[in-house]
Amino acid sequence: MRILVLGAGGTGGYFGGRLAASGADVSFLLRPVRAGRIRHDGLQIRSPLGDVLCRPQVLVATELAAVAARQPFDLILLSCKAYDLDSAMDAIAPAVGPATRILPILNGLRHYPLLDARFGAERVQGGLCFINATLNAQGEIVHLDPVARLSFGERDERPAGAGLQALSGMCTTAGIEHRLSPRIELDAWAKYAFLCSVAASTCLLRGSIGRILATEGGAAFLGGIYAECTAVAAAEGEVLPEPVRAAALAILLREGSSQTSSMYRDLVAGKDVEALQIVGDMVHRAVRAGLSVMRLDAAWIHLQSYMAQRQAG
Ligand SMILES: NC(=O)C1=CN([C@@H]2O[C@H](COP(=O)(O)OP(=O)(O)OC[C@H]3O[C@@H](n4cnc5c(N)ncnc54)[C@H](OP(=O)(O)O)[C@@H]3O)[C@@H](O)[C@H]2O)C=CC1
Ligand SMILES: CC(C)(CO)C(=O)C(=O)O
């Protein structure tokens, strides 16, 4: 199976790099600066699960159509930030042939209708990842703890097609923990409710879960914001099962936890954040459902203020 990975940041670089290092047929579609760096230095992963240095095939947008015409891609792993989705869709379009499937691993849910409208829902599969990874000043992928898990599946509970089964085999060969999910849409909501709680809380309250829990009112805030997110999920028809909620709350209420979120790391670094696509989208869904979500509202206002300050320079 031939895989194209759009993006070589924390997630695409980690999972695509591990697949490439294990011998899988993986190419990266990158913008010129990142492409130049990886062509020169290789793709380096620093990880508690073992470092990897590989030299995958690297393409830039202008090279893609010719390469895809010679050898079509079976799967495109989409690992951009949600605010780059439009440009990423333009970039991958020349590689989307009749049999190509697209597997996004972005956070949130807002990208699905956009990908469906552009490429057709039958091509877009369900995906998500659990990892804490970032880039260092040298452009290396720094994996921050031992968690690194992919989940993927067909949407609408269709049985997994040959492409996802092949990907599962490739992940096994590469030593990537993964799950071929029979209910990826439920899993996507479970992750969105959890991630949105972590991202909104750590950004609004400016600290790790452990630091928030050490404050008076911190535990009630974290439990409350998760309840807001699960209420939105239920209003949209995804009632998260009790074991799923218990597992999320166990992480959200773990004293001393250093857990933050990729959004928090970006915010502390002064970078752009997926505020609209993660927290804003949850708030907008709550408004449509007539739900009151005061904690999410506060986080969304805070993030909008952050972005306005950032734009003002
Ligand atoms: N990092 C983490 O720990 C986790 C992140 N996530 C989610 O995964 C998604 C990706 O995050 P992450 O990997 O951290 O993001 P990064 O910013 O680290 O990487 C994104 C990559 O996409 C590339 N890209 C964006 N647009 C284009 C384009 N048009 N053409 C080519 N390349 C493009 C960027 O290129 P360039 O370098 O040129 O900007 C960059 O290499 C997000 O939705 C995030 O919320 C989920 C779980 C954990
Ligand atoms: C769930 C979590 C916090 C880690 O995978 C995440 O998705 C993120 O940091 O963006």
Automatic annotation (TrEMBL):
Domain Ketopantoate reductase C-terminal: 184-300
Associated pathway: Cofactor biosynthesis; (R)-pantothenate biosynthesis; (R)-pantoate from 3-methyl-2-oxobutanoate: step 2/2
Top-level lineage group: Bacteria
GO molecular function: 2-dehydropantoate 2-reductase activity
Segments crossing the lipid bilayer: none
Domain Ketopantoate reductase N-terminal: 3-155
Claim: Zinc-finger is one of the keywords in the record: no
EC numbers: 1.1.1.169
Gene Ontology process terms (BP): pantothenate biosynthetic process
Catalytic activity field: (R)-pantoate + NADP(+) = 2-dehydropantoate + NADPH + H(+)
Keyword set includes NADP: yes
Pfam families in UniProt: ApbA, ApbA_C
Cellular component terms per the entry's GO annotation: cytoplasm
Stored InterPro entries: 6-PGluconate_DH-like_C_sf, 6PGD_dom2, ApbA, KPA_reductase, KPR-Related, KPR_N, NAD(P)-bd_dom_sf
Keywords (A to Z) from UniProt: NADP, Oxidoreductase, Pantothenate biosynthesis
Broad enzyme group: oxidoreductase
Alphabetical list of SUPFAM superfamilies matching this protein: 6-phosphogluconate dehydrogenase C-terminal domain-like (SSF48179), NAD(P)-binding Rossmann-fold domains (SSF51735)
Function in brief: Catalyzes the NADPH-dependent reduction of ketopantoate into pantoic acid.
Record-stated family: Belongs to the ketopantoate reductase family.
Protein's name according to its UniProt entry: 2-dehydropantoate 2-reductase
Organism name: Frateuria aurantia (strain ATCC 33424 / DSM 6220 / KCTC 2777 / LMG 1558 / NBRC 3245 / NCIMB 13370)
